[in-house]
Structures are given as structure tokens and as C-alpha cells.
């Protein structure tokens, strides 16, 4: 390829140009390397991995719409033709290219082939528009717009150059491909399967990132009052059944490892439940990390942009030409990036919290169905799935904020050192003292939170029992006494909560003291230093330092308030863990017999053969249930019911009636296996 530099600019060096194109442009080698070769290479690598995944789904075609699929493929074919023409144009003598121009054109053409294959397979085997294609096309459109501006500026000296026109055509066709790929495929999916799914499962990446997929429920809420049936169903992966299965498998696996290990079993204070949650939700926990890092990067760009913008307003000689337009574009990109990254981050965070709540509530529910009611307070689950769960979610919401804010503070101190020198020590000292005070408060927050939750559990349990026995309470004339008792429990709960409230107030005070004192001490140290060195604090440094101080103190305010909540949530998790470790009743063995007349119906098939069977299920039994020689008791000392023999016919109404205290509930619990001690045979017909 004949490479010339007839544009008169230093396009062969890896830097912005100087002395031409308004002093506001990158060199061609920079644009072709960073804005073309780099994204194309990343796209090819990710496309290869995605193609491998889609090829494994070839037996499970999801979407139809062959005409629309061919339309997208036709647009890609047109784009391939224009890219081929661009490749030929770059090889012509006299083209204003660089050593990277031809490589970028070749790689762009290879991208088109990968794009065609990926678009075809994504349409058929994925329920939503391709995230990879849409993100790549949007990013490359922005990068191509920068390169197109450069080509048109170069073309002012080369009117016979066809590169700008061909590149413009490629940009228009790529934009049309983006619009086609962003079309959601709800109309092409089987209605019997996908009409009951969440709109999020078929939404394009832009709709998910900006929460546009919620527009349906928001519009419905504007027109009428919402009811639970109006809400969209949960997306796949948030259902409790699958989450509970994974959680229980890891929980029981840990139990077996502890039983087989020579080390002592985990104490109730050990973080076993936390580790099980981390293993169960590891991908959901890690998903918000990248958006949070991007948000931190955009946040740190603000004081740097402010410094350069103040220098531009001050008339610094390094800013010439169209720099002002550049500031407008960069500021728009920074704040747009902040909004989008924060939206994605919090969406993924709350998705993880929903999954965590599903795991814990399902685990508490399953444990409640297996726990021995004579050995444990059965009012505990009410508090665990309500008050404790809210505290757990409120604390875990800020897990990623802890490390992200700490990282932001460290970088802000370093930037402040570059701006003010040794004066950056002042806010660092204030931050250290505040951190020590906050963490001392956090160590007390755990115990204060647990005491509060225990008092709440006692009050909620007593209230539930009072509501369950409200008829007897009114008949006995005990309403005022029960009301006074519940009021005393409420007063005790508020008294227990007082310590945790004090800790929250002290923590908030410490965090806001940092916000008020840091600028004062920082500029005081700088002025003392300036008196000895003879330096001065100019306007640019003053405003930049204030921005950096705000960038450092605001995360500390959040951090100092988040740590006590996180520690308190760990205390609530230990309460849930203690409940999950509670002794459970011994389950009776289950023998399933075959249909009547089956040769194996007499012997039966044991599901659990550790002990002798006492519950038999006859699939085609003519009776609903049969009890033979039943003996039932709450404990092993004294049976409550002895010598029970009864038959209940199937397909008929059978009622258990009798006066209060005649063991009706005991018999009902015995029939479903809820009594811990029983003997005899109970046969259930199915």
C-alpha cells in the first residue's frame, strides 16, 4: 500500500495532532489502532465464544420470523460490500493512510463475517436481541464517527478521495443494522411459552440498562391502582424453587463435610451461612463489580475535567481551536456514563438481593416444616422472614459500596497529593480518626442489633399467639391483660432498640464531621506550607482541591454508615443460621406399594430403610387413610392417644369433631406425620 501523509499533519505518531485540523483531532494511527483494531479484536474473541455457545443449542430453536432474519442478513451483506470497497480504497496509491489503516480495514471485514454468523444464530436460538452485537455496534458507531470526521477534514485537501464517502455509507448501513438488531423478538417467540415470562427476559440490552422494560407496568400504574396480579412474573433464575435447590445442596454438602471432618463442628457464630450464600450466588455477587468499577472511573473523571476546564477558562495556551466543543462532548459522555453504569449496577445488586432473600426465606420455610415444635420456639420463623430479613437486605445492599468507596477514597487522596502536596495528609488523618471511631461503633452494632431482634421476635411471637387464641381470650375476659402484656413487650423492644439507635446516631455524626472538617484542616495545612515555600493557591488548584475533597468525603459518609448496617446484618444472618441448625424431628420412613393386584404390592419399595416403616402409601387404595394400632405422643414419656384404629373412605367428606381438648389436632398431625413420636401403621390413599 502506498502510504502518504499529504494531509500535512503528524498522522504517523501515536498522539493528538498539532498544527492542523483545528488542533482538535487524533492522528490516523491512533484512531485506526485504538478506535478500530482494538474493538474489532475484542469483538472477534467474544463472538467466537458466543458462537460456540449458540451452536450447542441447535436442537432447541426458540424464535421464528425467517423474513426478518433474512432482512438483517441482507443489511449485513450490504455492509460487507461497502467494507470491501473501503479495503480496496485504502490500497489505492495516494490514500492518506498509515501502517495501521490496512490492518484495520481487513479486520473490519472479518468482523462482518462474524457479525453475519452471530446475527443468524442469535435470532434463532436466543430469546432476546444479542447483547454482544448491540454493544459492539453502538461502540463502533461512536468510534467510526470520530474517524469519519478526520477523513472529511483530510478530504478538504484531496477532493478526489472516495474514502470519506464510502466510510459515510458504511456508517449509515451500520446504523441501520443496529436498529434491526435492537428490535425485540417477542412477536417471533412461541406465545404459549413466552407470554407468561417477564418482559426483562426478551428485552434488548439498552432497555435493560435504562430500565425501559418497566414502561408497561409504569403506564398501567398511571392509569389504575396496581394489584399483585398486575405485576410482571419473575424472570427465570429468580424463582425460589431453583435457588432453594442449589442452596440446600451446598448446605447439606457442608454438613456432611463437617460430620466427616476431624475438626470440631462449626459454632453458631461461624460464618457458615455467609459462605453458603456466597457459593450459591457467586455469579450474582460478582456481576455488579464491573459496573461499579466503571461508575468509580466516571466519578473520578469529574475533578480532572473540572481542573482542565478551569485552565481552559483561564486562557491557558495549551487549549486552542475547538477545545470548548470537546469539553461539551466529554462532560456529556461522563454524566451519561455515570447514569448508565449506576443504573446497571443497582439493577444487578437488587437482583442479587432478591435471590438472597429467596434462598433464606425458602431455607427457613423448609426448616420450619421439619423442626421439632416441642424443642424450639415456633414463633421464631415469623421474625426471621420479616424483621431480620429486612435488616439482612438493608445491610447487604452496601456490600460493594464498602470496597468501591474505599478505592475511591484512596485514589482521591493520591490525586489530592498531586494537587496540594503534603497537605493531603490532613484529610487522611481526619479520615483515619473517623474510621477508627466508626469501626468501634460497628463492633457494638452487631450485639445491639441481635438484642433488638430477639426482643422483636418475642413480641411478634406473643402477638401471633394472641391473635390465634383471640376467641378464648375474649371468652375468658383476658383482653385487657393480654393488651397490657403486649404493650410491655413493645416497650421492652423499644428499649432494646435504643442502643442500636444510639450507635447509628453516633456513626452518622462521625461521618458528617469528616465532611465538615476535612476542607478546613486541608487548606490550613496548605497555607502553613505555602508560607515556608512561597507558593500560592490559585483558582484552579482551589476548586480542583475542593472537588477532590468532596470526592473523598462523600464516600466516607456512606462508608461509615454502611459498615454498621453490614455488621448488623451479619448478626441477623447468625440468628438465621442458629435456626437452621435447630434439631428437627425424626421423619418417618415411607413405603410405597404398587397398584392393587400388582405382584410387588405386598412387599413394597422402601425409600428410606434406616428404620422400620410406619407410613405406607397405597396408590390405588379404596380408602383415604387407614390407621391400625396407632399410638401417638408429643414426647417419648407418655402417649397421648393409644390404640387408634380407623378407616376414612375416599371421595367422601370426613370430619373430625369433638369438644375442646379431645385431641382432634393431635390426630390430624398424626395423619400427616407431624408428631415426633408415633407407632403403628398409617396408610394414605393417593
From TrEMBL:
The keyword Nucleus does not apply. The keyword Ribosomal protein does not apply. Its main location: membrane. Residues 293-568 form the ABC transmembrane type-1 domain. One of its GO terms (molecular function) is ATP binding. GO terms for cellular component: membrane. This is ABC transmembrane type-1 domain-containing protein. It comes from Gnomoniopsis smithogilvyi.
Amino acid at each position: 500500500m502506498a502510504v502518504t501523509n499529504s494531509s500535512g499533519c503528524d498522522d504517523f505518531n501515536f498522539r493528538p495532532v498539532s498544527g492542523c485540523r483545528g488542533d482538535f483531532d487524533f492522528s490516523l494511527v491512533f484512531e485506526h489502532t485504538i478506535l478500530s483494531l482494538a474493538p474489532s479484536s475484542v469483538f472477534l474473541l467474544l463472538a467466537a465464544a458466543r458462537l460456540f455457545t449458540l451452536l450447542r443449542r441447535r436442537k432447541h430453536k426458540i424464535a421464528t420470523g425467517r423474513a426478518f432474519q433474512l432482512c438483517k442478513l441482507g443489511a449485513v451483506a450490504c455492509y460487507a460490500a461497502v467494507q470491501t470497497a473501503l479495503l480496496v480504497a485504502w490500497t489505492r496509491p495516494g490514500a492518506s493512510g498509515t501502517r495501521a489503516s490496512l490492518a484495520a480495514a481487513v479486520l473490519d471485514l472479518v468482523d462482518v463475517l462474524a457479525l453475519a454468523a452471530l446475527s443468524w444464530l442469535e435470532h434463532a436460538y436466543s430469546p432476546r436481541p444479542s447483547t454482544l452485537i448491540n454493544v459492539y455496534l453502538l461502540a463502533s458507531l461512536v468510534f467510526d464517527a470520530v474517524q469519519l470526521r478526520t477523513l472529511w477534514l483530510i478530504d478538504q485537501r484531496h477532493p478526489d478521495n472516495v474514502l470519506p464517502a464510502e466510510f459515510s455509507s458504511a456508517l449509515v448501513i451500520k446504523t441501520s443494522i443496529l436498529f434491526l438488531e435492537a428490535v425485540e423478538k417477542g412477536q417471533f417467540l412461541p406465545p404459549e411459552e413466552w407470554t407468561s415470562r417477564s418482559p426483562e427476559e426478551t428485552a434488548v440490552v439498552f432497555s435493560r440498562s435504562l430500565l425501559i422494560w418497566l414502561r408497561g407496568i409504569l403506564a398501567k400504574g398511571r392509569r389504575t391502582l396496581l394489584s399483585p396480579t398486575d405485576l410482571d412474573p419473575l424472570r427465570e433464575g429468580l424463582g425460589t424453587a431453583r435457588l432453594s435447590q442449589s442452596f440446600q445442596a451446598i448446605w447439606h454438602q457442608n454438613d456432611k463435610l463437617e460430620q466427616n471432618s476431624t475438626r470440631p463442628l462449626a459454632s453458631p457464630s461461624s460464618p457458615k451461612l455467609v459462605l453458603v450464600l456466597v457459593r450459591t450466588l457467586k455469579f450474582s455477587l460478582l456481576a455488579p463489580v464491573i459496573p461499579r468499577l466503571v461508575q468509580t472511573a466516571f466519578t473520578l473523571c469529574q475533578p480532572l475535567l473540572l481542573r482542565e476546564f478551569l485552565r481552559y477558562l483561564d486562557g491557558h495556551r495549551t487549549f486552542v481551536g475547538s477545545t470548548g466543543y470537546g469539553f461539551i462532548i466529554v462532560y456529556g459522555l461522563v454524566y451519561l456514563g455515570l447514569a448508565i453504569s449506576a443504573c446497571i449496577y443497582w439493577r444487578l445488586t437488587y437482583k442479587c438481593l432478591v435471590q438472597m432473600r429467596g434462598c433464606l426465606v425458602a431455607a427457613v420455610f423448609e426448616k420450619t416444616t421439619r423442626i421439632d415444635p416441642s424443642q424450639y420456639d415456633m414463633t421464631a420463623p415469623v421474625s426471621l422472614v420479616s424483621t431480620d430479613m429486612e435488616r439482612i437486605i438493608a445491610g447487604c445492599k452496601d456490600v460493594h459500596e464498602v470496597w468501591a468507596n474505599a478505592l475511591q477514597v484512596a485514589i482521591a487522596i493520591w490525586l489530592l497529593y498531586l494537587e496540594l502536596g503534603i497537605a493531603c495528609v490532613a484529610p487522611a488523618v481526619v479520615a483515619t480518626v473517623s474510621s477508627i471511631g466508626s469501626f468501634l461503633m460497628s463492633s457494638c452494632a452487631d450485639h445491639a442489633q441481635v438484642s433488638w431482634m430477639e426482643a422483636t421476635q418475642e413480641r411478634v411471637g406473643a402477638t401471633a399467639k394472641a391473635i390465634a387464641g383471640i376467641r378464648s381470650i375474649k371468652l375468658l375476659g383476658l383482653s385487657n391483660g393480654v393488651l397490657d402484656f403486649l404493650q410491655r413487650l413493645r416497650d421492652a423492644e423499644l428499649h432494646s432498640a435504643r442502643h442500636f439507635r444510639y450507635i447509628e446516631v453516633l456513626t452518622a455524626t462521625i461521618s458528617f464531621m469528616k465532611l465538615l472538617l476535612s476542607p478546613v484542616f486541608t487548606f490550613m495545612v496548605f497555607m502553613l506550607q505555602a508560607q515556608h515555600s512561597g507558593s500560592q493557591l490559585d483558582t484552579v488548584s482551589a476548586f480542583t482541591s475542593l472537588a477532590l475533597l468532596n470526592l473523598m468525603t462523600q464516600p466516607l459518609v456512606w462508608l461509615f454508615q454502611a459498615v454498621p448496617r453490614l455488621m448488623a446484618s451479619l448478626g441477623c444472618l447468625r440468628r438465621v443460621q442458629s435456626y437452621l441448625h435447630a434439631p428437627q424431628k425424626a421423619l418417618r420412613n415411607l413405603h410405597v406399594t404398587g397398584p392393587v393386584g400388582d405382584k410387588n404390592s405386598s412387599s413394597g419399595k422402601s425409600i428410606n430403610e434406616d428404620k422400620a416403616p410406619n407410613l405406607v402409601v397405597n396408590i390405588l387404595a379404596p380408602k383415604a387413610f387407614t390407621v391400625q394400632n396407632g399410638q401417638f405422643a408429643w414426647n417419648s414419656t407418655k402417649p397421648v392417644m393409644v390404640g387408634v384404629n380407623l378407616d376414612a373412605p375416599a371421595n367422601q367428606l370426613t370430619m373430625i369433631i369433638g369438644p375442646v381438648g379431645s385431641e382432634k389436632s393431635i390426630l390430624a398431625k398424626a395423619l400427616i406425620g407431624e408428631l415426633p413420636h408415633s407407632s403403628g401403621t398409617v396408610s394414605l390413599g393417593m
